[in-house]
Amino acid sequence: MSNINLDTDPERNPANPETKHAAELAGPDDQTKLTFAQLAAQGHGATRLNPDAEAVLSVDDLKMYFPVKSSGVVRRTIGHVQAVDGISFEVPRGGSLGLVGESGCGKSTTGRLITRLYEPTGGAMYFGEDRVDLAKLSNRAMKPYRRDVQMIFQDPYTSLNPRHTVGSIVGAPLAVHKVVPKNKIKDRVKELLEVVGLNPEHYNRYPNEFSGGQRQRIGIARALTLNPKLLVADEPVSALDVSIQAQVVNLLQELQAEMDIAFLFIAHDLAIVRHFCPEVAVMYLGKIVEIADRETIYGSAHHPYTQALLSAVPDVKQAAIGGRRERIRLEGDVPSPINPPSGCRFRTRCHLAQDICAKVEPPLLQIGPRHKVACHFAGELGDAPRTPVTSGLLGVDGQGSPDPSVTPEELATGPGYEKRWFDVKSRQMVSA
């Protein structure tokens, strides 16, 4: 494997005692210091989506409610934070699914649920060929599966114990799971450090002797020790300088290609997700509001929230000709997850909202071969329908009241995609 050096990290300062050894780690400078918007404009990106790939992870109606306690001596539960509320998706074997949204939407909680750092309130997480439900396993029964599901944490400064050497940090999973003899752990750790582009001779150094980008590589090496089938990458580059973010993401792409690892890539930066993930899910206030392949999401998003997010991404092609993408500004604040609004959770900030949006929660409806959206007025930007597209499917009228003259359709609500879907223009079910 070709190594990608992180040693162009501007945080490295030889005069700083915390990074006095970082200069020794440096290799040739990487000349490719492009932003992800520039990379996307040049056609660089993730591998194409394989629609026939089996799912390594299938999440169905996953929920995580955190109890809210009252103050005082007797602390009673007075409510719940609905951090994740009934989401469903699949991660293909050897593929990548991007999970994006604003801070507080529940995406990081989703990652911690999948790795079982949190115990789900409800739902299922089917993993591997035998479709074991990770949500139902005890901590003891979960231990063998922790080898297959690993996590890269967001902050390289707090996710590494400053009292432990790099060797002990990366080697800890090997010792816990006893996958290699004790006398072979050091050799395995050095091999992993080399794989992620670090000098294996710095096995005995401490995290404070490395720059931020190098620390994140140490975290990646730790996640790779057990040869996982699925990596949950929780904002793996958000704490890094822009000049080295692309290098870390390119390293992850190399590792994915060579080791056939599946990724759940959590981020708030849509340009990074576009570079890495062939499929993208958008979350808002604990719900997935749209999920589709990359070309569909970035080319013809149908949910007004997705469209607003995309309008904030810099468009290099427009800038090159002196143009500028019109920014969609959302009014108001995100509602509280303790007391979310009725019906559609986005309606309080949506310019398309009508009565039906307050009365009926829109289902995550499949509207294309690999495209689902949860909106009563789903449509491309500037071409939203005037009347709700879902009323006939749900057996309600245009205001969301029950309509006895309409028989509601049986809609598939689980993860994955069906061979039949609802065409929003013709308002009919169509087949592949």
Automatic annotation (TrEMBL):
This is Oligopeptide transport ATP-binding protein OppF. InterPro entries: AAA+_ATPase, ABC_transp_ATP-bind, ABC_transporter-like_ATP-bd, ABC_transporter-like_CS, Oligopep_ABC_C, P-loop_NTPase. Residues 1-27, 388-414 are annotated as: Disordered. SUPFAM superfamilies: P-loop containing nucleoside triphosphate hydrolases (SSF52540). It comes from Nocardioides dokdonensis FR1436. GO terms for molecular function: ATP binding; ATP hydrolysis activity. The keyword Ion transport does not apply. Signal peptide: none annotated.
